[in-house]
Amino acid sequence: MHTHLTRRATIAGLALSTFASSMARAEPVKGGVLNVALFPEPPMAVSAFNSSTYVGLISTKIFDGLVTYTYEMKPEPLLATSWEIAPDGLTYTFKLRPNVKWHDGKPFTSADVKYSLEKVWSKMHPRGRTTYQNVTSVETPDDLTIVLKLSKPTPILMKSLSSYESQVIPKHIFDDGTDLAKHPGMNAPIGTGPFVFKEWKKGEYILMERNPNYWDQPKPYLDKIVWKIIPDAAARAAALETGEADFTAFSAVSISDIKRLASLPKLAAETRGYEYLAPLFLLELNNRNEYLSKVEVRQAISHAIDRKFLIDNVWEGYGTALTGPIPPTNVEYYTKDVPDTVSYDPKKAAELLDKAGYKVGAGGKRFKLRLEVVAVSDTMAPSGEYIKQALGKVGIDVELRNIDLGGFIKRVYSDYDFDMTMNVIYAMPDPTIGVQRLYWSKNIKQGVPFANVSGYSNPDMDKALEGAQTENDPAKRKAMFVEMQKIAARDVPLTDLFYIKYVTLHNKRVMDHTTGAEGTYANFAKVYLAK
Amino acid sequence: MYRVIRIVRRRLLQMIPVVLGIVVFNFALLHLAPGDAVDVMAGEAGASNAEYVAQLRQQYGLDKPLPVQLGNYLWHVVQLDLGYSYRHNRPVLGLILERLPATLSLMLTALSLSILLGVGLGVLAAWRVRTATDTVISIFALLSYATPTFWIGLMFILLFGVTLGWLPTTGMESVGAGYKGLDRVVDIGRHMLLPAVTLALFYMAIYTRLMRASMLEVYGLDYVRTAQAKGLAGGKIAFKHVLRNALLPVVTVAGLQVGSLLGGSVLVETVFGWPGLGRLAYDAVFQRDFNTLLGILLLCSIVVVLANLVVDMLYAVLDPRIEYQ
After folding, report:
1. In the structure, what pLDDT confidence band is assigned to residue B262 with cuts at 50, 70 and 90?
2. Claim to verify: residue B109 and residue B170 sit in the same structural domain
């Protein structure tokens, strides 16, 4: 009786789950126009030359990389159909997809990959320079095979082959002797991807059409993608409401509008799909400052800030508090087993400040610090206000200094004229790509944005980071990153606040837009509009 | 007639040093802002390294000393070359010409609308001074003048776009709809209605108040009393005798408005996603895209100087007592 019942329940459950998955996996529909509300307008359309967020959004639909990634960052075939890495980690062999054509009809071959890697990724891309620095030769034994020889193992290489990070561009277009900085191909791109660039009316829209010769038939499903440039956040919200736009990424409306819009019957919000970028909200500290050079002061600042309050009240809940430099989304390397310097504890903060020798003086203040507030989103200013209040409670007087992006980069990174600064940093899928730059002493480079601006230098930290750069054994590499997280949590050269949950707001009829860690940086071949 | 041509020619020649002075001044002013285009691009890229930054600066010519950069720029401007925008990867002149039709169509529509409505309402208010009509017009003008433009724009979007669904809320035309001929004109017109009215309301209010005050002032003059004494009808006095003289201040302000034509209204263009020059300039400030910005400012300064010339000439037409030597 008992078994019988269980069996029946199981069958019923099975039937139900099949039914449910068939609901979710409805047959994709061909046709339709996807309207995306976009701002700021990208300066050009090729990420291989410009890695900014909005270039990434549009160019990944036109160009493909060698691979794409699942949510767990497992590579899957795109322009490469298979790959082999030698046990010593020094030789990579990629087999390329046959019969792929560029949008102008020319065949795609290994020569294009060789050109992209040698002339563009490793020369013109801000991260690519580091990623491909150990590549000593690129061989093309035939049109569909490419072999990379490396001088040292480079574990980040297989994580850097997405359509955004290392997009394959056509040699026959770009290798024509024109100055690459002025190349017309930047604004009228020709790729191998599912969508063909049609028209760009600056300030108005970018139009892409279905690539009828895409290798992965019957994809792509959409007929057209129209990227509408809508500069005002409230107008973007209105466009979603009226149906003039179906889609926005990267929390493109005012943060107080997100919940209201997501609750409308025809709209929905998606926070997955930003794992590849892993955006972090940080408070960077100038360790050259008299007060901030003391580790007790830095720990005190970290304990004085209530991360949960900041997330819930300023960021409307769209964040996950950090415990250290590597975000929990990085399942491979994250550890929470680190010294606790992140719990909200103003009493401990006050004790630490006392211990550092900064007693409370006149008016309840110990000392004064300046905080740079860069005007890049509507959450920056209130975040600054909160930090000012939180630090004020433990006796640190904070002066807020508002500035725009250009001035901010100059003041903070070129002039080091700051004490504390809030910043959004992409941690990227591997700590060597995105996190190392903030902690590595060899990356203290004046005048270079997003370098180690705190001026933090610790030989143990350097040893762990440098070891991980070329460690081929995954277990040993993980141990190095665990060590790195422990040192960072103890020294707190900068304050890790939280992982930002960006929101993709979309009309419910837009299906399959987020299917892996790359999220809206995927090529949209799978996207369709439900009837 | 010959005298007029000579005056215009002299004024045009005087324009050249003025415009060049403006270029130098703008160049100096813009470089007071901290950071350059490469800072912004590297900032937006979210990643950087030393070689990347150095290479960009060298490509854009930003590694040269400022006086050399200024010299290069002036040399190009003299040859009517506005330079290259590395931000947009295209020549500045092309960039501006691409945006010019959108700006001109919106601004000319708004300008005509505001002058027609403003002068009309102003005349009506002065004619019916201290009646209910006058009060209603004055309150309407005051409200239009005092309400922030962007707020009116957003309210229009909410009312006519979101709630009623009558008009599109953003852009200049329906992308990919493939409208041709008259259909396209109607489509653009539907997109233009809200931004044009939003923009026109503010200037309309100014013209209304100006026109009313100016009419009332002229009404008090002796020759109007004479006209009334000889028994002319009220309407005839208002239009033939008062209006023409009262128009002078309106022409002055309209000249100023024409001067700001190219700059457009950044706020209205932003709220309605209108692809005009004002927004191009505004974005260029934050992108430190100085070539683009200098190009737009140069063009604007030429328009301002020309508009002043036209206004001066118009004075002479409207009021024969004004003469130029």
Report:
1. low
2. yes
Per-residue confidence band for B219, with pLDDT thresholds at 50, 70 and 90: confident
> Distance (Å, rounded) from C-alpha B52 to C-alpha A130?
11
For A405, the closest of B47, B99, B286 (CB atoms) is: B286
Tell me how far apart the alpha carbons of residues B46 and B40 are, in angstroms, rounded to a whole number. Answer: 10
Q: How many CB atoms lie within 10 A of CB A344?
A: 17
CATH topology of domain A279-500: Dipeptide-binding Protein; domain 3 (3.10.105)
Q: Which of B39, B49, B154 sits opposite A410 (nearest CB)?
A: B39
Cβ contact, residue pair B89, A226, below 8 Å: no
Highest mean pLDDT among A201-215, B8-22, B148-162, B299-313: A201-215
Q: What is the CATH number of domain A3-188+503-529?
A: 3.90.76.10
Find residues 117-156 of chain A whose CB sits inside 8 Å of chain B. Answer: 124-127, 129-130
Disruptive mutation site among A267, A404, A437 for chain B (greatest number of B CBs within 10 Å): A404
| B154 at A interface, C-beta within 8 A | yes
Mean pLDDT of A110-123: 94
Residue A18: is its pLDDT beyond 60?
A: no
Mutate: best of A46, A47, A202, partner B, most B CBs <10 A: A202
Is A190 within 8 Å of A170 (Cβ atoms)? Answer: yes
For the residues B266-279, what does the mean pLDDT come to?
88
Q: What pLDDT, on the 0 to 100 scale, is given for residue B263?
A: 64
Q: How many helices (H) and strands (E) does chain A have?
A: 17, 21
**Which pLDDT score is estimated for A135?**
96
The whole-angstrom distance between B31's CA and the closest CA on chain A is 11
CATH number at residue B262: 1.10.3720.10
Q: What is the 3-state secondary structure (H, E, C) of B72-121?
A: HHHHHHHCCCCCEECCCCEEHHHHHHHHHHHHHHHHHHHHHHHHHHHHHH
Q: Give the pTM.
A: 0.87
Torsional sign, CA B67, B73, B75, B77: negative
B122 touches chain A (CB under 8 A): no
Contacts of A404 in chain B (CB under 8 A): 286
Partner A contacted by B175 (CB < 8 A): yes
- Residue B192 neighbours by CB under 8 Å, 6+ apart: B105, B106, B109, B172
Within 168-227 of A, beta carbons closer than 8 Å to B belong to 179, 181-184, 186-187, 201-205, 207, 224, 226
pLDDT tens figures, B135-159? 999 999 999 989 888 888 889 998 9
With CB atoms and an 8 Å threshold, state whether A127 touches B47: yes
Could you give the C-alpha distances from A490 to A466, A496, B54, in angstroms and in order?
A: 19, 12, 35
Burial A124-154 (b: 16+ CB within 10 A, else e): bbbbbbbbbebbeebebeeebebbbebeebb
State which H helix or E strand residue A506 sits in.
strand A504-507
Complex ipTM above 0.85?
A: no
Residue from the list B43, B88, B172 with its beta carbon closest to the beta carbon of A43: B88
Is residue B172 located within the same domain as residue B210?
A: yes
Instruction: Average the pLDDT over each of A340-349, A421-430, B47-56, B136-145 and give the range with the smallest value.
Output: B47-56
Angle, to 10 degrees, between the axis of helix B244-259 and the axis of helix B290-318?
170
Domain co-membership, B167 together with B308:
yes
Task: Quote the CA–CA distance of B160 and B192 in Å, as a whole number.
Answer: 13
Query: Can you tell me the distance from the alpha carbon of B273 to that of B171, in angstroms, rounded to the nearest whole number?
Result: 5
Contact A406 B39 (CB under 8 A): yes
Nearest-angstrom CA–CA distance, B95 and B85: 8
Kind plus residue range of the DSSP H or E element containing B202: helix B181-219
Distance CA A229, CA A36 (A): 9
Nearest to A226 among B37, B51, B175 (CB): B175
